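Work Package 3 (structural annotation) set out to generate three-dimensional models for the target panel prioritized at the project kickoff. During this period the team completed the workflow that converts sequence records into discrete structure tokens, so that structures can be stored uniformly alongside our sequence database. As a representative example, we reproduce one entry of 273 residues exactly as it appears in the project archive.
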Amino acid sequence: MIRHITTNKPARLVHTTSINKTLRILVFHHLQIARNARPGQFVQILTSIGLEPFLPRPMSVFSTQPREGTFAILCAVIGPATERLARLAIGDELPIIGPLGNVFTFPRNCEHAVLVAGGVGLPPLDFWARRLNTIKRKNPPEITLLIGARSNTERPRIAKINGVRRWWSTDDGSFGFHGNVVQLLQHLHTENRWPIEKTVIYGCGPRPMLQALQKWIIENDYPGQLSLEEMMACGFGVCSGCAVPVRPAREGYEKYKRVCYDGPVFDAREVFL
């Protein structure tokens, strides 16, 4: 498990880009986060110093530019906190804590990474795809990125990654595969039958999508890692507000894992969803 010393120094907004009607990429200047954040980790952003919203918001790190000292998040504008983020002006500063949490891992014997992203579960997996793409091996790993959205209008317009095979699904069939992203996974698996001993499935997205993905991974006997999305009040494991039950069921304190402290990345068989 990789953990870095975190900081609560403010981050300064340096750039923002809209990639559809509700999604925005926000780029902040923050040297420590830019240099230390790894795929799977997150930051806690306090969007207001008042009472509304009172709690900081967890945001997965979308990308980093260590030389420039910047990092980016992908924000869905859906509530008071994210609306405040969307109204930020260039140069505005926000209190921020990070990087927090653990990271995705890639086994030495693995030859193929299949990344399954649903909705705003895309940021850590896009970051992971870029990082996997830099692995120096005699035979570089294959990388397949599956992205699900409700419709073409809600599909995030993000840059393609050279060397990464990318597939889209939309619930209404307006772009790519007609169905959800786990159904797309099954469709591609039926066509390709990836070797179990050389393939790892990674996932991030809303809970219903992760439940379906976890079930698929277990039924098809693949190794997998899931990044969970939970409301995290503290980000340090103190409040235990993001606890999830572990598998197999245990008693007492060992019955739960804290997503912010023990995760957010878990073995696909480690927790009940």
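Residues 206 and 229 are 7 Å apart (CA to CA).
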